[in-house]
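Dear Dr. L.,

I hope this message finds you well. Following up on our conversation about the binding site, I have prepared a predicted three-dimensional model of the protein together with coenzyme A. For your records, I am including the exact sequence and ligand specification that went into the calculation, followed by the structure tokens. Please feel free to forward this to your student if that is useful.
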Amino acid sequence: MVRKTLREVVIDEMLPEDVPEVLAIEQVAFTTPWSGTLFMNEIYKPLSLPKVARAGGRIVGYICANQVLDEGHILNVTVHPEHRGQGMAREMVRHIVGLLEERSCSVIYLEVRVSNEAALRMYERAGFRMITVRKRYYTSPEEDAVIMALDLPAGKS
Ligand SMILES: CC(C)(COP(=O)(O)OP(=O)(O)OC[C@H]1O[C@@H](n2cnc3c(N)ncnc32)[C@H](O)[C@@H]1OP(=O)(O)O)[C@@H](O)C(=O)NCCC(=O)NCCS
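The resulting structure of the complex is given below.
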């Protein structure tokens, strides 16, 4: 099998024509996948930052974030199962943190299922810290959410 290296990966705006490929990854990654409409909403909202990672002309991952005043929020980060463990998520998170920092955000929040060890570890490695647990936040299956935050320089005095 030919493995892609990170050098071949480009992070781009998510476009309406990307949604079918994004949905194919979303549906294998989550028990409660987002619909096409939800992704389309992110594409058209002015304060949303939906991005795709492309390698060899194919979408291998995506990330959605948004901004409310000086707060950023990462909504999802997903990598195609065949492309995991190659630093793809790390690169997408670094990219989105940089964009939110440029937009003067002082903090970025996100939530993640308590059982999602890969995501928890990935966010911790990106500098996020756990701030609290929100009980029974998720459904299908019901599960607690870990709320994580990353403070950005704009918020440090
Ligand atoms: C979580 C996910 C995005 C990680 O993507 P990835 O591209 O494989 O992650 P990376 O290769 O960039 O790894 C980044 C860090 O996370 C850690 N990590 C990634 N997968 C891991 C796993 N299965 N177990 C433990 N740690 C893991 C890596 O060790 C790495 O840390 P390091 O720099 O110390 O080596 C991917 O597993 C995925 O798409 N999961 C399904 C969707 C999901 O749960 N998204 C998050 C919630 S929205």
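In brief: The chain is about 30% helix and 40% strand.

With kind regards,
A. P.
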